[in-house]
Amino acid sequence: QVQLVESGGGLVQAGDSLTLSCKGSERSISGYVVGWFRQVPGKEREPVAHIDWSGTRTFYVTSMLGRFTISRDNVKNTVYLLIHHLKPEDTAVFYCAADESDFDVVQTFASWGQGTQVTVSS
Asked: How far out from the chain centre does Cα 49 lie?
């Protein structure tokens, strides 16, 4: 397992863009599939997207297509989630997670960060 630290959350206005970061804190995450998830208050945590170890392959949950962009910089040991045109309904805790499974078969993630709160005001 690896330790992950999310950052970049905060209070933003509707229509703004925001970049969240997920950094491996003690060891390299370059060999891991990394995913972003969000948990809206009162609802279960849901996946947003994940990215393979090299950054060349990405997967987005259909409902997340268009406003979310996942990327990574293995030199900086960081995976990013860019969110465009934020809406009040995007208010959630965003988590990143990592797993050693192959990109095509990953279903559960072994390592999780503690999350970063994103609050969108109207």
From this structure: 7
With CA atoms as reference, report the closest residue to 68 among 102, 35, 97, 100. Answer: 35
Round to whole Å and give the CA distance between 36 and 9: 13
Residue 11 contacts by C-beta under 8 Å, 6 or more apart in sequence?
A: 119, 121
Closest by Cα among 10, 7, 19, 39 to 84: 19
Cα 33 to Cα 25: distance, rounded to the nearest angstrom = 16
Per residue in 20-40, pLDDT tens? 999 999 889 999 999 999 999
Distances 11 to 18, 88, 110, 117 between C-alpha atoms, Å: 10, 11, 29, 8
β partners of residue 36: 49, 96
For 62, the token pair is 């259909």
